[in-house]
């Protein structure tokens, strides 16, 4: 069907222009899927030298982020991608992840909410949203989202399960003044 037509079209394009940026996009994705992040980053960088396509820019920003590289470079790339393709859900999600790493939780929350509106329910984005709520000090919302994620362990990868578990442990410590500890105090008062 369509995928065979797309593959043959891509082959024809690359036969005419073997140095086309799409070659580097595909190569970068294949290398990423194999776990070779350094080579994937190099491939995306080659592609960007040919054409500053928004998807390539975003993919490079994601790789830089995953490799714990220069957050400002990653932010510049994703901002450029969003200028070229405003409102793209995947790019908003990448920028939100960068904001989280920078400790800019309000901006992360805004981008994540918009990305969720555009992309629909996405557990990875919900985990990031819980992290943004936690960073903002909104323990009630962070705990609610983390609990909802914990009820779906079969849909989370190992890293996500670990992050949800760690978040639940942090949030359930119940320092004085949190909604959950106040609720416990009310229950104790009613029980007396």
Backbone structural class:
mainly alpha
pLDDT < 50 runs, ≥5 residues: 176-192
Amount of helix:
over 70%
Q: How many whole angstroms does the radius of gyration measure?
A: 21 Å
Report the biggest beta sheet as strand number plus sense, adding barrel if it closes.
none
Report the β-strand fraction as a percent range: under 5%
- What shape does the CA trace take? elongated
Tally of strands: 0
The overall pLDDT average reads 82
Distance between the termini: 69 Å
Order of helices and strands: HHHHHHHHHHH
What is this structure, in a nutshell?
This protein has 192 residues and is an all-alpha fold.
Overview of the molecule:
Helix 5 (71-84) runs antiparallel to helix 6 (89-102). The protein has helices spanning 2-16, 21-34, 37-50, 54-66, 71-84, 89-102, 105-119, 123-136, 139-150, 158-171, 179-191. The radius of gyration is 21 Å and the shape is elongated. The protein is built from eleven helices and no strands. With 192 residues, the protein is mainly alpha-helical. Helix content is 79%, strand content 0%.
Essential attributes:
single chain, 192 residues, mainly alpha, 11 helices, 79% helix, elongated, disordered C terminus
């Amino acid at each position: 069907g369509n995928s065979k037509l797309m593959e043959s079209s891509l082959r024809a394009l690359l036969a005419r222009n073997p140095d086309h940026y799409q070659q580097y996009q595909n190569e970068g994705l294949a290398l990423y899927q194999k776990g070779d992040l350094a080579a994937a980053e190099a491939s995306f960088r080659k592609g960007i030298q040919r054409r500053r396509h928004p998807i390539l820019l975003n993919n490079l920003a994601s790789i830089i982020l995953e490799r714990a590289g220069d957050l400002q470079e990653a932010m510049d790339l994703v901002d450029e991608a969003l200028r070229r393709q405003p409102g793209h859900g995947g790019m908003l999600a990448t920028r939100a992840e960068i904001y989280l790493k920078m400790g800019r939780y309000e901006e992360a929350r805004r981008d994540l909410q918009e990305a969720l509106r555009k992309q629909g329910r996405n557990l990875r984005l919900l985990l990031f949203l819980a992290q943004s709520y936690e960073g903002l000090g909104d323990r009630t919302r962070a705990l609610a989202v983390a609990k909802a994620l914990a009820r779906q362990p079969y849909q989370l990868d190992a890293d996500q399960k670990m992050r949800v578990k760690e978040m639940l442990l942090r949030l359930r410590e119940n320092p004085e003044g949190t909604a959950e500890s106040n609720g416990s105090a009310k229950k104790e008062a009613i029980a007396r």
